[in-house]
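The instructor's notes for this session suggest beginning with a concrete chain rather than abstract definitions. Hand out the sequence below and ask the class to guess, before any prediction is shown, which regions might be ordered.
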Amino acid sequence: MQPRSMNEALCWYAERSVSTADAFDEAVKQALSEIEQAPHRCVAVDDRHRMKLLVKKFPYHIIYRIDLDTLIVVAVAHHRRKPRYWRDRQ
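After discussion, reveal the predicted structure:
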């Protein structure tokens, strides 16, 4: 079963290896920092959302949007999840 949220993913990794869970958490934080520095650099997936791949050996990407000057993370999504399952999230 694939994790359905970032917290579930962290727990899943921690059950297997605490150091891997820490590395996943750090990779997400690094990706979020990169998004904050240049939010328009990532690829647009529709007219509101952008996607940042989490390259650091984890099969996840971050879906976010920019509302005024605020970044809103919509999903930290596993690559094998149903595509665009997050579309109805506000």
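Then share the key points. The chain has a mean pLDDT of 83. The chain has one domain: 6-78.
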